[in-house]
Design brief:
- By secondary structure, the chain is an all-alpha fold.
- The chain has 15 helices and two strands.
- The chain has helices at 27-33, 35-40, 44-64, 83-90, 92-123, 130-142, 145-156, 163-172, 181-184, 186-211, 215-223, 228-255, 260-265, 275-284, 289-321, and strands spanning 67-68, 78-79.
- The chain has a two-stranded antiparallel sheet with strand order 1-2.
Length: 322
């Protein structure tokens, strides 16, 4: 009787993979045939347009920042000086504007975050008309900044017919104090208007963070007997940390460039001139193009630093979501 001889089974894992043949086509042909580049080619006109509209003006501003260029003295233009940057960091008036810019940004961001978190916690609950309330909460952020500043300047702060003094009259009668809010409290007046306008922005981001909490974990905490404060401190706040950072960084980027409120409400008087308004004064009043460009470069560099942290926060959020 014949016995069958077992044929050895060849394993595909042990077989060497055939080497990929080297592409000997010219470089331009290989570049055009890349699928990735073919998808990106239609975007090149938009990229070129963005570079021309953003980077070239910045490069021109950077060049001008190293010049002694004052329109009032056209015969004294000189290039290759660092005097403009030295003036930015040594001039007392500029230091005061830098200090107020930092104070304004930190105060508005922190207070808006606190109010936004409180309102987001309320809007995260189920109640009748929640959709309408959310829509009304967004409204202040949608108002044009100049219109918002005019609204607060005349309808809220006016000492004769403003809402605040009207409320004081209703509470204390004819003997109620009638302060001129913008003159007596100029910095607080600007901060109050910006807090009113930016609190809805913080609320939207923080409300999205609250609604992204894992429901099963929150229910497990309630089953285990965790109280409201324990759940908030040990579960909600750690989860909200990245959203708080994101809202704070985005708010900082925009508020550090705030110009409309300062220009409309106080015109930089009473110690309320921040860096953007100071640049405006340097450029249009003093007509010192070199110094104004140096101030603008410093603001842009500071904004880029903040934007870098913002992008890192966004990247970590997306990675966490995936």
């Amino acid at each position: 009787m014949a016995t069958a001889t077992a044929t050895p089974v060849r394993s595909e894992k042990n077989e060497p993979k055939p080497s990929k043949p080297k592409d000997t086509r010219p470089f331009n042909e290989r570049w055009l045939n890349k699928k990735g580049w073919l998808r990106r080619v239609p975007l090149l006109p938009a990229l070129v347009f963005v570079v021309i509209m953003t980077q070239l003006p910045f490069l021109a501003t950077l060049v001008v920042s190293f010049t002694n260029w004052n329109a009032n003295y056209p015969d004294e233009i000189a290039f290759g000086t660092l005097q403009n940057f030295a003036t930015v960091f040594t001039d007392p008036g500029l230091r005061a504007s830098v200090f107020f810019t930092i104070l304004l940004t930190v105060t508005v961001v922190l207070v808006s975050l606190a109010f936004g978190l409180g309102i987001a916690l309320l809007l995260n609950r189920d109640f009748l008309g929640r959709g309408a309330v959310r829509t009304m909460m967004i409204a202040p952020f949608l108002v044009v900044p100049v219109a918002a500043a005019l609204l607060w300047k005349h309808a809220m702060y006016n000492p004769e017919y403003g809402l605040f003094n009207g409320v004081l009259t209703q509470i204390f009668g004819a003997s109620a104090p009638q302060p001129d809010w913008i003159t007596d409290f100029p910095r607080l007046a600007i901060m109050g208007e910006l807090i009113w306008q930016w609190t809805p922005f913080m609320t939207l981001i923080l409300l999205a963070g609250l609604q992204s909490r894992p429901g099963d974990i929150m229910e497990a905490a309630q089953v285990d007997g965790a109280g409201t404060w324990q759940t908030f401190a040990n579960m909600t706040m750690p989860h909200m940390r990245r959203y708080l950072e994101l809202a704070g960084l985005l708010g900082t980027i925009y508020i550090i460039q705030q110009f409309d409120s300062v220009f409309t409400m106080t015109a930089g008087a009473y110690g309320t001139a921040n860096l953007p308004y100071t640049i405006y004064q340097t450029l249009y009043n003093a007509q010192d193009y070199g110094l104004a460009s140096a101030q603008g470069v410093i603001v842009v560099i500071g904004t880029i630093i903040i934007a870098t942290f913002t992008l890192r926060t966004l990247s970590s959020l997306f990675e966490e979501g995936n």
